[in-house]
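Hello again, I could really use a second opinion on something today. I've been staring at a protein lately and its backbone has me curious. Can you walk me through what the tokens say about the fold? Take your time with it, there's no hurry, and the full record follows here:
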Amino acid sequence: MTSEYTAFLRNTSSRLKALHAADPFDVGQHVSYGNIRLGSPLTEIEGLPIILGPVGGGQQMPWSAVRFMGSAAATEYLRNLSVLVEPLRPSQRRLAKRVDVVISCNNETDRLAKHSGYQNRMQMADFAMGARSKTIKTSDPAQPLRVLWVSRLIGRKGLRLALEAFSIASADAAMTLTVVGGGPDAVLSEEDRPFVTFVGAVPASDLDELYDQHDVVLFTSLRDSGCSVAMEALARNVPVVCVDHHGAAFITDPSWARKISYGPASSLASRLADALVGLATNRQHIEELSFAAASFDRHKNKADRSAAILELIQELRAGK
């Protein structure tokens, strides 16, 4: 994907210059790919005020997560090293000087932007909610807790961690786990896993129904820019149990999510399991979390995000 995108950037540059020459832009915003490390062809248009983002790219997989990563660990370690040296790259320093405002979608990317020399920084989720559900989640204590995990089945999404946490939790309380997604880690479905159902990839249009059918979403990504899964769960008022880092740390709030710190890695699965058991044994708390989710907002919906961006654009236009 990255190689295809960098080729797209090169091909776009001349087209942008031609459009600007014919009818000059007032402000440019680069939003097409969420990675601060890949730059923007907008910087080649002299004098154009530029908004970069929302972008991610500054987050790193925890070094101790190798046991959850499978064959993807080596690639992630190399990526970690490249993120560490990114603020020192001349191209990144030049980008920081040229961009008027950078919008980061997680704390780690904001920190990278600061170290790279970006003067004006703000934060905003890179995924907006559409229509919100008005239904408050209730959970029948006479039935097993219904846990949902949604993502691509690749190493950095943490399916191995989720399965380990669920195995521990389901030994202490009645619950089921539904795994939604496709990818290389689908091989994990070939093992005998009691109370776990793999349903494969499903159309995006079917996800709302799946969220509505479950009591809680388990989010275990080991590296993620924006955490669209948590945003989708929030839109359906479904509580989330998540690892408290990267996009999940920025998007989720303790009022409607059980946020579990990453370290130490040796106890992470057990601590996630404790959170699941706590919800399984206190179904009233699920309703409380769902009620909090229904009233929570922090520039998460499309209208608020659009208004914030438009205000920023007007400020940059006025300052030209």
